[in-house]
Amino acid sequence: QVQLVESGGGLVQPGGSLTLSCAASGFTVDYYAIHWFRQAPGKERERVSCISGSDDGTYYADSVKGRFSISRDDAKNTVYLQMNSLKPEDTAVYYCATALRRLCARANMDYWGKGALVTVSS
Question: CA–CA separation, 12 vs 114, rounded Å?
Fold first, then answer.
C-alpha cells in the first residue's frame, strides 16, 4: 500500500529555515520521482520541487529557486525539502506526492500525503 507522510512543518520567522520530510512506504523513492506541492489559502496549488527516481534530476519553481533544496535518503526511503530564507509568501500547506513515474515531468499525481503546514511570520 502506497503511503506518503509529511512532517517538519511549523512556525518560523521570515529569513529562517525549515526542513520538511516525506516518508514513503509501499514503493522506493530511489526509483520513482517525488514532488513537493504547496497551497496557500485562496491560491492555486503550486508545484515547488521534484527529485527524479532515475538520474537524481531536480526541479524547482522560480519562486523557490536558490532558497529551497530537495534531497533523498534511500536508506530511510525519505525525501527532504530544505527551505531557507523563508518569506511570508511561503506560508502554505506543503504536500508530497508521486505519480509513480521515474522522471519529474508534469503528471497527474496518484498519491498524496496529508500535508504539513508551514507558517512564516514574525
Answer: 20
Cα–Cα distance for residue pair 79/24, rounded to 1 Å: 8
d(CA 79, CA 71): 6
Closest to 48 measured CA to CA, from 119, 101, 97: 97
**Spatial distance between the Cα atoms of 41 and 101, rounded to a whole number of angstroms:** 29
| pLDDT given for residue 119 in this prediction | 98
Residue 95 above 80 pLDDT?
A: yes
Confidence of residue 107 (pLDDT cuts 50, 70, 90): confident
**For residue 29, is pLDDT > 90?**
yes
Burial letters 10-25, b for 16+ CB under 10 A, else e: eebeeeeebebbbbbe
User: Phi/psi of residue 8, each to 5°?
Assistant: 105, 0
Neighbours of 30 (CB within 10 A): 14
Q: Where are the beta strands (DSSP E) in 13-66?
A: 18-25, 34-39, 46-51, 58-60
